[in-house]
Amino acid sequence: MKKHLPNAVTCLNLFSGCLAICHIFAGDLETGAYFVGLSALFDFFDGLLARALHVSSPIGKDLDSLADVVSFGVVPGAFLFDLLRQSGAGMPTWLPYAGFIVTVFSALRLAKFNNDTRQSDSFIGLPTPACTLVVASLPLILANDRFALSPYVLNPWVLLGLTLVLSGLLVAELPLFALKFKSFRWQDNQVRFVFLLLSVGLFLWLWAAAIPLIILLYVLLSVLSPAKPKIEAA
Asked: Where do transmembrane segments lie in this chain (predicted)?
């Protein structure tokens, strides 16, 4: 029985992603963003549960990637499609479809992850949930715009640039730390604790507007940390 529990949580990730898509195409991007948050939680806990129960299987690994390609591949593409469509007055009619470039690169990222033995304790390239959280934060920023960011969020060139930057980061040979704690000793997890503390502070201060900054912080800490992950030959 216990070996099926992580897969059940993975299925909840997939289901939440499907609900996010439904709300996005119904024009309710804010609710779609909250379902992305649920998907991210389920994606975190399925792995945590599998490690805690000491269960794993090829089916579980494949199911996780299939769920992720929907929740963290199709979903950010749908968000960007809708946002580009809103911002595209006077722009080429094909422009909104460029948002699905993120979907393509997310699928490539997940395929690389499944076949790259270097990514057991760290990541190479931006994880798809991190990419999706950046995109999902945009409608939340629009709905609660305390910092007058709406003109930038709905600028088609900003959105297109964000699409290309995120797509590149997904497949970049960039070593990034994983939030996997083998122990809770400070000396073993300095960069993780610093990241979590700063992230909580930013989120409490800026709310949704903090999410892109938190992901940028994640990349910068990974690159600048003296103990940053090293890329070994595959």
From this structure: 7-26, 93-111, 123-142, 157-181, 193-221
